[in-house]
Design brief:
With about 350 residues, this protein is an alpha+beta fold. The protein has ten helices and eleven strands. It is globular and about 50 Å long.
Length: about 350
Amino acid sequence: MVDGEVLKKVVSKIFQTLGVPDEDALLGADVLVQADLRGVDSHGVSNMLKHYVTGLKDGSINPRPNWKVIRETPTTANIDSDRGLGTIVTPKAMDIAIDKAKTAGIGMVTVGNGRHLGMAAYHAMKALGHDMIGVCMTSTPVAVLPTFGAEPRLGTNPIAVAVPAKSEFPFVFDAATSSVASNKIEFAHRLGIDIPGAWVADPDGKPIMEPIQAPENVMGSGFSLLPLGGNRELGSHKGYGLGCFVDIMAGLLTGFGYGASPGAPNFGHYVAAYSIDAFTDTTKFKDQMDEWSRMMQSTKLAPGQERVYVPGQPEFEMELKRRKSGIPLHSEVVDWIRNICREQAVKCLF
């Protein structure tokens, strides 16, 4: 187990040695560690730090981007990220959206020419402390088949929404519009476990509906991800449609392309903040969110089930646990971090 603050310090120092300014390095590290604390290991240090280090070394990620707002109105803005890491630029974009929402009731910001943003919920959750509803979407490089297709045309294209409550934990929904995020398959491969059916399709585009051994590299192994739902009979057209929506809002709307064009390593992002006070009384809304959340949690259970969860509840509870007990890291991950620390002359604190 590794303490979250200790891990954040180490990751931040690694970023700094790769040319990232100190403040940005701490922000980028915070995004990664927050994912680990919430149990979203697929988007935390274990899976993503290696990709970010590689990008910073090969130049595909700009450690000191000259990002700038290139189009703006009182409620909207569009940012050229200058190949900056999404874990660093996207929180700043959300800050702009929040500032706009404070005066106009709503703020929406698109980010083009970007890179991976980590856990989308991190950016949506920034709105919570301002009594706002936060939204984050990201258009990613292709890995997902359209329903009935045999060629990837969409990315995993996640959507995250965060809503504050008064006494209950916040509602936080964060999910790919594919059946699964590709990072989770990488994670399953590292653990040597099978993946469920309806996650991937074979090279001919046929959905594989039974469990298989997790491939090391989904695309490199000839597999493709399936839209949320798996096949048409189980509703894959819905996941496909949502993925298309994200490609438009977080891709085309940026003016810098979308998942399939220009493709990797380009990402596009969309964040929005909605001031609750612009629509209704904030106190009343948060009281009703408490009531709504408790209603969901008190739902009559199906046979054999123990609890009904509200989106964000498992992650909220996991964060409480891991802040006390620490973050579990696979031995291979620990070895890799120690090696990169030696390479970059960083003192590893664990």
